[in-house]
Amino acid sequence: MNAPVMSATVTSSWPDHLVVLPIVLPIAAAGAMFLMDERRRTLKAAVSLVTVLVMLAVAILLLGRVGEAPEVYRLGNWAAPYGIVLVADRLSALMLALAGTLGLAALVFSFARWGQAGPRFHGLFLLLLMGVNGAFLTGDVFNLFVFFEVMLAASYGLVLHGSGETRIRAGLGYIAVNLVASLFFLVGVSLIYGTMGTLNMADLARRLASPPAEIALFEAGCAVLGIAFLIKCSAWPLGFWLPTTYSAASAPAAAILAILSKVGIYVVLRLSLLLFGAGSAQGFGQSWILATGLATIAFGTLGILAARELTRAAGYGVMISSGTVLAALGTGNQGALSGALYYLLGSTFAAAALFLLAEILQRGRDPADAAQPVFADEYSDPFDDADSTEIGRAIPAAVAIIGGGFLLCTLMLAGIPPLSGFVGKLAMFTGLASGAMTASAWGLIAALTLSSLFTLIPLVRLGIFSLWVPHDDPPPVLRAPEFAALAILLSACIALAVWGGPALSYAEATVRWLSQPHDYVRAVLDGAAAPGAGS
Amino acid sequence: MEIVLAAGIGVFAASGVWLMLRPRTFQVVLGLSLLSYAVNLFIFSMGRLTVGAPPVLGKGAEVVSVDDPVPQALVLTALVIGFALTALFLVVLLAARGVTGNDHVDGREPHHAEPTPENPHP
């Protein structure tokens, strides 16, 4: 796109700026949040809700727009390898929609109780979403680091939200682990820059077409970078922090943190298919990713079997879903990968819904936990407020709704018909069976089948403990926002199953697009977006 | 120059890793800081080591060698982010100290304490 064309279409080209909205909007709203008085809760909640709704709408619009060709947004109109670009392709748009849906549900859930349990919840929440969206959109590795840090800094605040000893202790470990991961990230990025002389993802892929002089050092850099992302997606043996942190976090924070491990998955997917899909470093690290994925599934399965609390079980569910996508990526089978991508959406929704359900079920059994202030002068009691002591309107038949929701989550996470967890696993099996039946394919099929069974057993057991309570225990109270949040997540799960055909074919088209890195490179560097349009 | 820088990075990184594995939270913070110094020097050195070479050229400048400005920009960003996150970590450390009453990374002392009336066989 040259300059005269741009100036001629300035008035009519507003949809071209859609790509930058998922970043600009939340950071502007978050900035406004910090200026607003902490007591104007309704206003803050309304602004957050509108922001997240617009973000979700933009993500859905982008889903429709990037079907043919990716949208490349040049920040400051600097051409690609010199300036930073945002790239919205099929995968980015899909992940944006996932983040938007999850964000909406977590935000609505927080209206019931948690949004008032401490200061600056909405600001941190929006900053987290901004970092996540930026990480999905950016086409530059160092810019990715910056968005990662924004997202992590906000997540440190959210993990501590609500305070209490458990959260502070879990938060201490979480922050330490992620600071180390950031250092790995920096070492990897600088090694890649030192060997290749560029940090633009498309430019890296283009330069890899001919073998660089220091290919071993470049691959070492990528491996170090990979460690940072594998820590983020809690792959074994780098993910021991995840269940502890997620089960300590407050429910809406845990639900939105479920997207964080998916950011790690997204980057591993993006970089390994773009840089190692073809060219001189083809296939680098693939067997390691497969082995890590299988080990993560195994560890997550053992962990969920041993879990005695619902939140821990949900945390291990997040691990299993990460491991599944990693292992499917490691097999190098396109059918398996598209099944895994579809499975990723459903399992993320289900794990987030399980975090929310766990909070509703376990509420009142450990009331001391949420009442500990961080600083004595800040908030004496997080829930000590006139309008929060009013009991929310209890939805009739709350137990039936909670039980039904729990059942749906269990079916999704265990991958049992008729929901999308099963469809995703079936798609992976079909993809693997249509290729060469190697040992790795058999290994993945065995791991997925066993993890289904061993996810079902502990979830049923935990469900019996928490739902079949004696009559004299007070029944759980479900407030309207909590019901709405659960409804959003569970209907997303059901919609994925009902419209399984279109969703799966979208995932297949995404994987086809990702496995042709030349089109991505051409679109970013030459502006020739459509495949086959020439360079 | 290369050997001095390499040795410096090595010493920073080794001390940082050792301190980070220590049981007190303050040692962990110091270890993380030292490690981030090592990493920042490493990023800086990825632009190759030059002496007296300008990173930005003016018009008509006669220069024999130029320095790569990108790693310098990167290290600046990394420094700022690292500083902010270390400060945030310090706040959490203080909160943990206040809540748990000690500065052990696990939030409690390990189990070789003296016998107490409540716990006669530790």
UniProtKB/TrEMBL annotation, chain A:
<protein>
    <submittedName>
        <fullName>Monovalent cation/H+ antiporter subunit D</fullName>
    </submittedName>
</protein>
<feature type="transmembrane region" description="Helical">
    <location>
        <begin position="394"/>
        <end position="416"/>
    </location>
</feature>
<feature type="transmembrane region" description="Helical">
    <location>
        <begin position="452"/>
        <end position="471"/>
    </location>
</feature>
<feature type="transmembrane region" description="Helical">
    <location>
        <begin position="121"/>
        <end position="138"/>
    </location>
</feature>
<feature type="transmembrane region" description="Helical">
    <location>
        <begin position="288"/>
        <end position="307"/>
    </location>
</feature>
<feature type="transmembrane region" description="Helical">
    <location>
        <begin position="314"/>
        <end position="334"/>
    </location>
</feature>
<comment type="similarity">
    <text>Belongs to the CPA3 antiporters (TC 2.A.63) subunit D family.</text>
</comment>
<dbReference type="InterPro" id="IPR003918">
    <property type="entry name" value="NADH_UbQ_OxRdtase"/>
</dbReference>
<feature type="transmembrane region" description="Helical">
    <location>
        <begin position="422"/>
        <end position="445"/>
    </location>
</feature>
<feature type="transmembrane region" description="Helical">
    <location>
        <begin position="18"/>
        <end position="36"/>
    </location>
</feature>
<feature type="transmembrane region" description="Helical">
    <location>
        <begin position="84"/>
        <end position="109"/>
    </location>
</feature>
<feature type="domain" description="NADH:quinone oxidoreductase/Mrp antiporter transmembrane">
    <location>
        <begin position="139"/>
        <end position="454"/>
    </location>
</feature>
<keyword id="KW-1003">Cell membrane</keyword>
<feature type="transmembrane region" description="Helical">
    <location>
        <begin position="172"/>
        <end position="195"/>
    </location>
</feature>
<feature type="transmembrane region" description="Helical">
    <location>
        <begin position="254"/>
        <end position="276"/>
    </location>
</feature>
<keyword id="KW-0472">Membrane</keyword>
<keyword id="KW-0812">Transmembrane</keyword>
<feature type="transmembrane region" description="Helical">
    <location>
        <begin position="483"/>
        <end position="507"/>
    </location>
</feature>
<feature type="transmembrane region" description="Helical">
    <location>
        <begin position="215"/>
        <end position="242"/>
    </location>
</feature>
<dbReference type="InterPro" id="IPR050586">
    <property type="entry name" value="CPA3_Na-H_Antiporter_D"/>
</dbReference>
<feature type="transmembrane region" description="Helical">
    <location>
        <begin position="43"/>
        <end position="64"/>
    </location>
</feature>
<keyword id="KW-1133">Transmembrane helix</keyword>
Automatic annotation (TrEMBL), chain B:
<protein>
    <submittedName>
        <fullName>Na+/H+ antiporter subunit C</fullName>
    </submittedName>
</protein>
<keyword id="KW-1003">Cell membrane</keyword>
<dbReference type="Pfam" id="PF00420">
    <property type="entry name" value="Oxidored_q2"/>
</dbReference>
<feature type="transmembrane region" description="Helical">
    <location>
        <begin position="73"/>
        <end position="96"/>
    </location>
</feature>
<dbReference type="InterPro" id="IPR050601">
    <property type="entry name" value="CPA3_antiporter_subunitC"/>
</dbReference>
<keyword id="KW-0812">Transmembrane</keyword>
<feature type="transmembrane region" description="Helical">
    <location>
        <begin position="6"/>
        <end position="21"/>
    </location>
</feature>
<feature type="transmembrane region" description="Helical">
    <location>
        <begin position="28"/>
        <end position="53"/>
    </location>
</feature>
<keyword id="KW-1133">Transmembrane helix</keyword>
<dbReference type="GO" id="GO:0005886">
    <property type="term" value="C:plasma membrane"/>
</dbReference>
<keyword id="KW-0472">Membrane</keyword>
<comment type="similarity">
    <text>Belongs to the CPA3 antiporters (TC 2.A.63) subunit C family.</text>
</comment>
<dbReference type="InterPro" id="IPR039428">
    <property type="entry name" value="NUOK/Mnh_C1-like"/>
</dbReference>
